[in-house]
Amino acid sequence: MYHILLVRYGEISLKGRNRRMFEDILISNVKTALQGISIGEISRTFGRIYIETDEWEAAAERLQKVFGIVSLSPVLRTDLDLDSIKDAAVRVMADTNASTFKVETRRPNKAFPMQSPEISRTIGGHVLKNFSHLQVDVHQPDVTLEIEIRREGAYLYSRTIPCLGGLPAGVSGKGLLLLSGGIDSPVAGYLAMKRGVAVEGLHFHSYPFTTERSKEKVMELGRILGQYTGQESFKLWICHFTEVQKAIQKQPYESLRITLMRRFMLRIAAKLAEQQKALAIITGDSLGQVASQTMESIFTINAVTTMPVYRPLIGMDKQEIVDISRQIGTYETSILPYDDCCTVFVPKNPATRPTVEQALEAESGMDVDGLVNEAVALTELVEL
Amino acid sequence: MQREIYLDNSATTPVSAEVAKAMEPYWSVQYGNPSSPHMRGVAAEKTMNHCRRTLAELLGVTPQELYFTGSGTEGNNIAIQGVANIPYNRKNPGHIITSAVEHPAVLHVARYLATIGWEVTYLPVDSTGRISPTDLQKAIRPETRLVSIMLVNNELGAIMPFLEISGIIREANRERQTPILFHCDAVQALGKIPVDLKAIDCDMASFSAHKINGPKGVGLLYVKRGTGLRPLMYGGGQERGLRPGTENLPGIVGMTRAVELALENLQTNAAHMRRLRTRLIEGIRSIPDSAINSPMDGAPHIVNARFAGIRGEVLVHFLEQKRIYIAMGAACSSKSKGRSHVLEALGLSSEEILNSVRLSLSPNQTEEEIDYVIESLAQTVGEIRSIYS
After folding, report:
1. Least CB-CB distance to A337: which of B317, B320, B337?
2. What's the total number of domains in chain A?
3. Cα A326 from Cα A96, distance rounded (Å)
4. A337 at the B interface (CB within 8 A)?
5. Which of B321, B381, B388, B389 is the best mutation test for A, with the most CBs of A within 10 A?
6. Staple B94 to which of B27, B143, B212, B290, CB 3.0 to 4.6 Å?
7. Top-confidence residue, A132 or B141
8. Given A162, A190, A220, which residue is the final one in a domain?
9. How far is CA A135 from the centre of its chain?
């Protein structure tokens, strides 16, 4: 019965001069998300977007993955006469299971002969007559029946579908996500996207030490994350990391292998980020979760670059991360049991308090720049 | 470029040209449903009956004792769950004896039965991967209903002492009103060792076509007359109600041809594969810090080996770059992270299990190919060790 979706966006309406640009990006993301669904006109007014569509449920499902949208309401539009509005009000209220309600009316179209409070009273009375179980509660109603008297007709709605909030994907600039295939990194990417980052992925592949399937798995994660980017595709960079791994295996400090591996990853990421004009690297580090995520390790790893490294999960417990990962749909893929490059090379006793001096000493016998340059040169782009 | 050398024939095999040719007319020309009343259906039914008779003759049983299934796994399920579904057993869950080294298609069915009130005994194996007949004898209880033991282990190639097993069961059944039923998973035995169902004297045996150059998606279950299995699925009554669903005629034709070929050439094929296997084992032994997990007197097509300090998975991926395809453990368990339960039952340490790989042969392979495999193994093992040392 609904033919219009009302899209509310919160935060971006506060952002002063950038507002117009933010709205443009949001609308573009909305259009991308709705590809394949038949939609009519898209119009915006006062911090809202109205989308005409005959498939509002399918559209709503897609828009629930678009950052920047606070909530959605399916809207019933009717002619600008009181009888039609009364009928529509009954239909909209029949679509709720509320026991208390109130009516709120707005009247941007001042040509309509009744004033807002009068409309609310009249319609409220009509609803009460039609539903014996309903009562009016103006303070804490189960449902608010909203009526907007607009030039195009009267808009009625009562349902509100909460959405993700955040900023429209892409308004903040580009970031490069280290995507391992585990549970954490997709969640980190998701949270960065939530604040408007245009996220691209970087995966380190150590074939033949790992299986081709682990790459497939990361590509699948990229496809899932891609649903939140507002773009038609997700860019995934695949770095062939085997030569670096071999070089690290050769240096004599076994307990430092993970530290060195992470330092190389960060160097490669920083270089690629620079080339691709990204402004940050994003990782799934959560403080203290594993040996490479102690404060000492993060300090020593981070020392290789001045590029900002965002760690959206830093304060999260594993369970919180798992919860988000289930909610965004990456969990089932993340737990597929293929080894990634970390697990095959992991030393028996990884250092938990590595220092920059130790790392530099271990790297002193390695051609660090050569390895990094070669790895960056061999990195391929896959558009998912 | 080096020709592909496929050493994972225990996972699956290519459909042979002869089998594919036999199947060809049954896709689009002889496409009938054996249950249809018209000539097209009758023709299909005749073909199916012919296949069943051919297979019965090859296996030395009656056509009425053979059921077409969708896979080896399905056959195992119909056999084991079919016993559990017998009305008396449904009300009185009993005891089932199996081994610790069965394929998951038996092991996990036993695990399921344990959740619906059955007692399960998992017989241990010795260092050659075989159960001990004495252990079986001791495990039998008054409420034992079923023994399910594979003929050939899929990871090691170990051949179970099946004649002794059936002897013990037959002996035990003398004093019983309800006999203990004996099921064999014969998937890895067919075409590799003689499978004489009458001599083995089992009540049920499962087979699969795609392990012997037949098509995937079709299998065969032998059920001795009067066994009284109850179905897992209900439908149009095909396969005398035990396995309803329109019969997979191209698959059945392909399987029949594959079994014919496998049994016609059994002697030659087995002898050839045994020679290759011996050569391969000797070659592996010449590589430092290696060991053979398979028993020497196992089936002719499987070599399970380990190389100290090298993860099986890494060896698999290095060798695939040389177009040599081998496996770690069994294909069905290597996708799940769990270690091989078979090698665990053998008593190997977790390190040794991680270092293990399985090479499974085909009768089409040559000694030159095996020599190339040995050379590549030696070289690759050396290469990986030099990276890790």
Report:
1. B337
2. 2
3. 29
4. yes
5. B388
6. B143
7. B141
8. A162
9. 39
Confirm whether B51 is a catalytic residue.
no
User: A339 pLDDT band (50/70/90 cuts)?
Assistant: low
Kindly state the average pLDDT of the residues A317-336: 92
Given A104, A138, A162, the domain boundary residue is A162
What tokens were used for B20? Answer: 């594919």
What is the rounded distance in angstroms from the CA atom of residue B200 to the CA atom of residue A43?
79
DSSP state of B190: T
Could B311 and A210 be called an inter-chain contact, meaning their C-beta atoms sit closer than 8 Å?
A: no
**Rounded distance between C-alpha atoms, residue A86 and residue A77, angstroms:** 12
Please state, rounded to an integer, the average pLDDT across all residues of chain A. Answer: 90
In terms of residue numbers, what domain contains A41?
4-162
pLDDT of A195 reads: 92
Instruction: Determine, for residues A246 and B387 on separate chains, whether the beta-carbon distance falls below 8 Å.
Output: yes
Distance from CA of A249 to the nearest CA of B (A): 6
Domain boundaries, chain B: 5-14+266-388, 17-264
pTM of the entire predicted model: 0.83
Range B5-14+266-388 has CATH code 3.90.1150.10 = yes
A207 touches chain B (CB under 8 A): yes
- Reduce the secondary structure of chain A to three states and give it as a string: CCCEEEEECCHHHHCHHHHHHHHHHHHHHHHHHCCCCCEEEEEEECCEEEEEECCHHHHHHHHCCCCCCCEEEEEEEECCCHHHHHHHHHHHHHCCCCCEEEEEEECCCCCCCCCHHHHHHHHHHHHHHHCCCCEECCCCCCEEEEEEEECCEEEEECCCEECCCCECCCCCEEEEEECCCCCHHHHHHHHHHHECEEEEEEEEECCCCCCHHHHHHHHHHHHHHHCCCCCCCCEEEEEECHHHHHHHHHCCCHHHHHHHHHHHHHHHHHHHHHHCCCCEEECCCCCCCCHHHCHHHHHHHHCCCCCCEECCCCCCCHHHHHHHHHHHCCHHHHCCCCCCHHHHHCCCCCCCCCCHHHHHHHHCCCCHHHHHHHHHHCCEEEEC
Residue A143 has a CB neighbour count (10 Å cut-off) of 21
* DSSP SS3 for B276: helix
CATH topology classification for B17-264? Aspartate Aminotransferase; domain 2 (3.40.640)
Q: Which of A232, A233, A236, A257 is nearest to A185 (CA)?
A: A236
Query: Under a CB-based contact definition with an 8 Å cutoff, are residues B113 and B93 in contact?
Result: yes
Q: Are B232 and B226 in contact (CB under 8 A)?
A: no
Tell me the pLDDT tens digit for each residue of B214-258: 999 999 999 999 999 999 999 999 999 999 999 999 999 999 999
Contact yes or no for B320 and A208 at CB 8 A: yes
**Contacts of residue B381 in chain A, CB cutoff 8 Å?**
none
How far apart are the C-alpha atoms of B163 and B171, rounded to whole Å? 12
| Residue of B51, B184, B202, B332 with catalytic role | B332
ipTM field = 0.75
Do B317 and A344 count as a contact with CB atoms less than 8 A apart?
Answer: no
Length of chain B: 389
Identify which of B232, B184, B260 has the alpha carbon closest to the alpha carbon of residue B83. B232
B284: closest CA of chain A, how far (Å): 21
Residue keyed to tokens 């409309």: A119
* Alpha carbons B368 and A52: distance in angstroms, whole number: 71
Q: Which whole number is the average pLDDT over A248-264?
A: 91
User: Which chain A residues are within 8 Å of B339, Cβ to Cβ?
Assistant: none
Q: Residue A360 pLDDT more than 90?
A: yes
> Residue B158: helix, strand or coil by DSSP?
coil
DSSP percent split of chain B into helix, strand, coil, nearest 5: 45, 15, 40
Residue A10 sits in the same domain as residue A47: yes
Name residue B13's beta-bridge partners: none
Q: Which residues pair with A155 in a beta bridge?
A: A77, A148
Secondary structure (3-state) at B201: coil
> With contacts defined as CB-CB under 8 Å, which chain B residues touch A210?
313, 317
